[in-house]
Amino acid sequence: MLEKNKTALLVIDMQNDNISAGGKSEGTGAVEHAQKQKIVPHISQLISAAHENNIPVIHNQFVVKNDGKAIGSNAPIFINMKNNQSAFSGTWGAKTVDGIDIAPEDFVLQRDRMSAFHGTELNTILKNLDIDTIIITGVWTNMAVEHTARDGADYGYKVIVVPDATATINDEWQSAAMNYAMNNVATKMLTEEIIKEL
After folding, report:
1. Hey, which residues does 9 pair with through a beta bridge?
2. pLDDT band per the 50, 70, 90 thresholds, residue 67
3. pTM (2 decimals)?
4. Can you state the angle between helices 30-37 and 171-179, rounded to 10 degrees?
5. Phi, psi at residue 155, to the nearest 5°?
């Protein structure tokens, strides 16, 4: 049972370079998988339900600043983002995808690491709002979503991940993220189930 006054909705990396046609990830299968998952309409429905029930909505976005000079070269993902100029600050690719609206009362955080908690005020905001449950949506399921779920559990939050409001590059990667380690750190609920509870 979701307690409205203890719950927040987290929307991760819903940016053009990640899931939009013409974005830097177009050749990976991410655009097609996002469409198959109907991730944009599902997240939009969850955002509307959150607003209607006075549940905080937090948009957390991966944005590469200063032309990638500080992103590092310790991991392939950071090297690739720098080389591909993916989600560079100020570009169309870093902007929020069409269909996901950010309301004036929503929080918008930026980071340059996988977990939504890393280098952001996310934990501080959640604590100050007296939140104990986070609903995680967004992309990619096997990267930022899973990293955030793991950190959320470590920080002491009840974590709910929404299978049909998350996406990656294909069904195999989605299954690997959802059906293995994630079972140890999060509960899964579908978009329709969450809306009914709210």
Report:
1. 57, 135
2. confident
3. 0.97
4. 60
5. -80, -5
Output 70-78 pairs: Cβ under 8 A, ≥24 positions apart: 70/112, 71/112, 77/114, 77/143
CB 34 within 8 A of CB 27: no
Please choose, from the candidates 45, 50, 56, the residue with its C-alpha nearest in 3D space to the C-alpha of residue 8. Answer: 56
User: In the chain, where do the E strands start and end?
Assistant: 7-12, 57-62, 107-111, 133-139, 158-167, 187-188
Q: Which residue from 72, 62, 70 is spatially nearest to 95, judged by alpha carbons?
A: 62
Q: How many residues does the chain have?
A: 198
- Do 56 and 89 touch, CB atoms closer than 8 A? no
Q: How far apart are CA 44 and CA 190, in angstroms?
A: 14
